[in-house]
Structures are given as C-alpha cells and as structure tokens.
Write a structure and sequence with these properties.
Keywords: Isomerase, Isoprene biosynthesis, Magnesium, Manganese, Metal-binding, NADP, Oxidoreductase
Protein name: 1-deoxy-D-xylulose 5-phosphate reductoisomerase
Radius of gyration: 20 Å
Number of helices: 17
Bound molecules: nicotinamide-adenine-dinucleotide, magnesium ion
Order of helices and strands: EHEHEHEHEHEHEHEHHHHEEEHHHHHH
GO biological process, one term: isopentenyl diphosphate biosynthetic process, methylerythritol 4-phosphate pathway involved in terpenoid biosynthetic process
Shape: globular
Structural class: alpha/beta
CATH architecture of the largest domain: 3-Layer(aba) Sandwich
CATH topology of the largest domain: Rossmann fold
GO molecular function: 1-deoxy-D-xylulose-5-phosphate reductoisomerase activity; isomerase activity; manganese ion binding; NADPH binding
Number of strands: 11
Strand order of the largest sheet: 4-3-2-1-5-6-7
CATH class of the largest domain: Alpha Beta
Function: Catalyzes the NADPH-dependent rearrangement and reduction of 1-deoxy-D-xylulose-5-phosphate (DXP) to 2-C-methyl-D-erythritol 4-phosphate (MEP).
Largest sheet: 7 strands, parallel
C-alpha cells in the first residue's frame, strides 16, 4: 500500500523539492493534500501533476478560483480554504505522513495537529518547534508520532546519533552536537559593512536556494540561532552542548562528538532532497534525484567560529533558549516581524537584531503552561515589534 502524504506549504522551496522526490516513487507514495497560502497558480499546476484528493488555499476567493480551474480541467480535487482546513488535512485519518513546510508561526497549529494525530511528521517548519518547544516534544511522545527532522543540520545529527537516542545525550556517550553553518552571504563582513545591505543581497545565498524568510535568517545568522533551539528540543541537549561551526562549503551538514573522541559527520551536496528522501523513507533509503558527492571537486573543507558581534541574532537565540518559557516564542515572533519589515524596505538589515533585542527587553518571560500561553506570547511580541517599528 502506498503511503499517503500531505504537503503543507507545497508551493514553497521545501514543498516543491518534496513533490520532486515523491514523483520519483509513485509506487511508494500518493499525495493526499497540497496546501499553499496565496500562490494559486502554482498550486493549480501541482494539482494537475499530483492529483491530490484535497487542496487548501488561504482565502475563499482563491479557493473558488482554483475550484473553477480544476473543474475545467476535469480534475476531482476538492478545494478548501483557511487555517482550519490546514489542520484537517494534517490530521486526516487517510494520511500517514505530513511534510510540515509552511514558513513561520502559521505552521504551528497544523504541524501540532499532525503530531497529535500520531503521524510521521517531517519537520521543516522549525519555527513551530522553536515556539512551542516542550509542548511539541511532549505531544510527540504522548501521541507516538514519528518526528523526523528535515532541516539539513538536524537531519544530519539524527543520522549521526544512535537509532534510539531519547533520554539525553550523555546516556549515549555524546558530548557535543556540532551544528554547521555556511555563514551566509555576508560571512566575514563587519557590522559597519552590514548596515546598507539590500534584501536582494541577503536572499542570494551562496550554497542553498531557499524561501525569502529563511534566506534572510541565514544572512543574519538567526537561522542558526533558531536551529540551535531546534537542536536542543529535538535531541534533548543543553545550549552549551551545541557548538556552531562555520563551514563555508556546506558539505558537512552537521556532526555528533562522542566521549571516546569519535566525531561522526554526515556529508552530501547541499540539496534538500536528501533529507526529504531520508524522512520519507526512514528507516529505508530511497533515490532522491541528488547528484553524488564528488570529494575531489569539493577538494577542501574549512571551519571557523561564528562572529557573534557582527551577527548578534545567534547570541540572542542562545540567550532565549537559556531563558526558557516563552522567550523563544518571543524571539521568533519579533524576528518574523523584523524580517518582513526588512524585506519591505522598512527596516535596515542590522535593525533585525536590534528589533529582536528591544522586544525581548519589553516582554516578560513566562512559563509555558499550554498552547494558549505560547500563542499569546507570540501575539504580544508581534504587537511590541510593530509598536517599535512605528516609533522609528
Ligand atoms: P517558502 O517561502 O519557499 O514556502 C513557504 C510555503 O508556505 C509556501 O507554500 C507558502 O504558500 C506557504 N505559506 C506561507 N505563509 C503561509 C501562511 N500564513 N499560511 C499557510 N501557508 C503559508 O519557504 P521554504 O524555504 O520552503 O521554507 C519552509 C520551512 O522550511 C521554513 O520554516 C524554513 O525555515 C524551513 N526550511 C527550509 C529550508 C530550505 O532549504 N528552503 C531548509 C531548512 C528548513
Ligand atoms: Mg538548516
């Protein structure tokens, strides 16, 4: 029986790569549902190829447009609209596997719904885990969901750890997780150089082709900060057990260091289809359509420490994880508002870290009791961020 897959955020960079891998294995996988926010043309094209049972868009107007086009084409895909429909296609009984590839906080509820329904959840949407941390991991355990990290670094670490790695790193002889970072397009730049950079420069990543939000996060190193928090939750690590290693070639995707001196690394070309195929097929391995790694062409691997004075977002994220409670949700919300403002030309690049720090100072850290606490912290941090922007 083929596995039935829902792809949340199907029209994005990860969503598109996921559909490429699925298309290589029609005998193994069927697409149950595809979702997008506003990109209705792209979703229509995907429906023509993958023939899902369901498609979801944000507004009823876009859904009606898609319904009409699908009717004309004689396709039976049912179209729904809105946030509740995202939750429905994530938890549907027919679905085995959910690719969580919506960007930002908007992905939290459908991703959690998939977890609570005990699905195999392929987690690309790191913001969901950063926001809800302990709640998310508790739900994974309680509902016996299978959580497979798709973020390339976490997927690499997952591959470098023993198969059963719950219960803390020390129990398995792991001393440190080495989280590699390309350094982004501005590696080696000073804070002064960074003041005038444009969204186009920030989105031109040297090694990876990604959506605009994560591209800006990679340029500011907030992406590495979010990943540090993500690693702490996924692998039960303390922030001081995760070391960020700048590795400009992006060939080693991350490593685990063991007490006997061994360091295990996962290598490959920087292509998200590798971790996606790993998550889809785990514990088996399938063809991903990725070019084989040619070590002679790579020739050398370089490593250097991250520059936290020019890129304060990494430090802000580490501090948020250490502060605990709602602090990571506040960090994430402020960053989402800051990145949007930067992409719209309303905030300079170095303003991203400044805005995140201001919102952090303005919002108390609260214990996370339930999802409502997280959603309230997110909303109030967004408000504080917008207020700060309005005063500039
Ligand atoms: P993207 O911007 O290319 O795509 C985002 C997708 O989510 C699109 O389908 C979009 O329609 C949908 N979407 C956006 N806002 C939405 C909303 N409010 N409600 C519902 N749907 C919405 O992003 P991406 O680069 O594919 O990244 C997706 C997630 O994966 C992010 O959390 C990112 O951090 C993570 N990730 C991406 C990469 C990568 O290589 N692109 C690598 C690691 C992790
Ligand atoms: Mg990553």
């Amino acid at each position: 029986m083929p596995r039935r897959v829902t792809v949340l955020g199907a029209t994005g960079s990860i969503g598109t790569s996921t559909l490429e891998v699925l298309a290589l294995h029609p005998d193994r996988y069927r697409v149950h549902a595809l979702t997008a926010h506003r990109s209705r043309e792209a979703l229509l094209a995907q429906c023509r190829v993958h023939r899902p049972a369901l498609a979801v868009l944000d507004t009823e107007a876009d859904a009606a447009w898609l319904r009409a086009r699908l009717d004309e084409a004689g396709l039976a895909t049912e179209v729904r609209a809105g946030a509740e429909a995202l939750v429905e296609v994530a938890e549907a009984a027919e679905v085995d596997t959910v690719m969580a590839a919506i960007v930002g906080a908007a992905g939290l509820l459908p991703t959690l719904a998939a977890v609570r329904a005990g699905k195999r959840v392929l987690l690309a949407n790191k913001e969901a885990l950063v926001m809800s941390g302990a709640l998310f991991m508790d739900a994974v355990a309680r509902h016996d969901a299978t959580l497979l990290p798709i973020d390339s670094e976490h997927n690499a670490i997952y591959q470098c750890l023993p198969v059963e790695h719950r219960g803390g790193l020390a129990r398995h002889g792991v001393t440190q997780l080495l989280l590699t970072a390309s350094g982004g397009p501005f590696r080696g730049w000073t804070a002064a150089d960074l003041a005038a950079v444009t969204p186009e420069q920030a989105c031109a990543h040297p090694n990876w082709s990604m959506g605009r939000k994560i591209s800006v996060d990679s340029a500011s190193l907030m992406n590495k900060g979010l990943e540090l928090i993500e690693a702490c939750w996924l692998f039960d690590a303390r922030p001081d057990q995760v070391q960020v290693v700048v590795h400009p070639q992006s060939v080693i995707h991350s490593m685990a260091a063991y007490s006997d001196g061994s360091v295990i690394a996962q290598l490959g070309n920087p292509d998200m289809r590798t971790p996606i195929a790993y998550g889809l097929a785990w514990p088996e391995r399938i063809e991903a359509g990725v070019e084989a790694l040619d070590l002679f062409r790579v020739a050398r691997l370089d490593f250097e420490p991250a520059d936290e004075s020019a890129f304060p977002c990494l430090r802000l994220a580490r501090e948020a994880m250490a502060a605990g409670g709602t602090a990571p949700a506040v960090l994430n919300a402020a960053n989402e508002v800051a990145v949007e403002a930067f992409l719209d030309g309303r905030l300079g690049f170095t303003g991203i870290g400044e805005l995140v720090a201001r919102v952090r100072d303005a919002r108390p850290v609260e214990a996370v009791r339930d999802l409502e606490t997280v959603l309230a912290a997110d909303a109030l941090a967004r408000q504080a961020a917008h207020d700060w922007l309005a005063r500039q």
